[in-house]
Specification:
Layout (H helix, E strand, L loop, with lengths): L2 H4 L4 H14 L3 H15 L7 E5 L6 H9 L4 E5 L3 H13 L6 E4 L12 E7 L8 H12 L2 E12 L7 H13 L4 H14 L6 H11 L5 E6 L2 E7 L3
Parallel strand pairs: 1-2, 1-4, 2-3, 4-5
Antiparallel strand pairs: 5-7, 6-7
Helix pairs in contact: 3-4, 6-9, 7-8
C-alpha cells in the first residue's frame, strides 16, 4: 500500500473497520476462512512455513484463521498504517498467537529480499491503490520476495463500481439491512467510490499478476464487486 493510500486509515476509521468491512463485504469471515483453507491446501505437506501478510492492518482475520489451521506457521505482517497495524496486533494478541507474528510498519518494498517467504496473503488492499502502475509495482514487490512456486492468495474488489449499477444497488441494500439511513447509505457509497480504484475486471487482475511474474489466477470466492484468487510465482 502506498503512503497516500494508507493515510485515510486514521484512528477513527481503524476503530470502525471491522464492523463496516463485514457489512460492505457479504461473506467477510467466510472469505478469510477460505483464504486460509486454500493457502493450507496449496502448501500441503509443508509443516513449518513463513507467510508474508500484506496490508495486514485491521481485523487480522486472515492471520488468525490461518494460524489456527496451521499451528507451526509463522507470519510477517506488513502495513504502513500505524492505527490499522495496532488494531491487527491487538486482535492477534487476544487470539494468543502474538509470538508467531512479526509486525512491520512499512511498505513491502522496504522489506529485505532475503529470506524469501513461502507464501503471501493480500486481502482488501489492491483496490485502495489508485494508480495501475503502483498496483503492478506492489505485486512485483511481493513476487520477488516469494520462493519460486510460492503461493499468493489475493482478494479485493475487481471491477469499476459504476460499471455494475445492479451490484451497486444491492451493495446499498446491505447497509439498509444493517440499519443505515438513506443519507448514511449515500455517504458510505460516495466514500467508497472516492477512496478506492479497483482494477477494471478480473482480466485486468490476471494481467497485473502476469506482469508481476505470477501464474494464471484461480478464483475461489466472489461477492458482488469482490473476488479472491490463488496464484503462484512462476519458476
Amino acid at each position: 500500500m502506498t503512503s497516500l493510500s494508507h493515510a485515510k486509515f486514521d484512528p477513527d476509521r481503524a476503530r470502525e473497520y471491522g464492523k463496516q468491512a463485514r457489512i460492505a463485504l457479504a461473506g467477510y469471515d467466510a472469505c478469510h476462512e477460505l483464504c486460509a483453507c486454500i493457502l493450507s491446501a496449496a502448501l500441503a505437506g509443508h509443516k513449518e512455513r513463513c507467510v508474508l501478510v500484506v496490508g495486514a492492518g485491521g481485523t487480522a482475520g486472515e492471520i488468525i484463521t490461518t494460524a489456527r489451521l496451521e499451528p507451526d506457521w509463522r507470519f510477517v505482517a506488513v502495513d504502513p498504517s500505524e492505527p490499522m497495524l495496532a488494531l491487527a496486533q491487538s486482535q492477534v494478541d487476544a487470539a494468543g498467537i502474538g509470538e508467531r507474528v512479526t509486525f512491520v510498519r512499512e511498505e513491502v518494498s522496504a522489506l529485505p529480499l532475503e529470506p524469501q517467504y513461502d507464501a503471501a496473503l493480500m486481502i482488501g488492499v489492491l483496490h485502495h491503490i489508485p494508480e495501475g502502475r503502483d498496483k503492478a509495482r506492489l505485486l512485483a514487490d511481493i513476487a520477488c520476495r516469494l520462493v519460486p512456486g510460492g503461493s499468493l492468495v489475493l482478494a479485493g474488489n475487481c471491477r469499476s463500481y459504476d460499471s455494475e449499477p445492479l451490484l451497486q444497488a444491492a451493495w446499498a441494500n446491505r447497509w439498509r439491512l444493517h440499519g443505515a439511513s438513506e443519507e448514511d447509505v449515500e455517504v458510505k457509497l460516495a466514500r467508497i467510490k472516492a477512496g478506492a480504484v479497483p482494477p477494471e475486471s478480473e482480466d485486468a487482475v490476471a494481467a497485473l499478476l502476469a506482469e508481476a511474474g505470477f501464474s494464471i489466477p484461480k478464483r475461489f470466492f466472489a461477492s458482488l464487486f469482490w473476488a479472491a484468487w490463488h496464484t503462484r510465482r512462476e519458476m
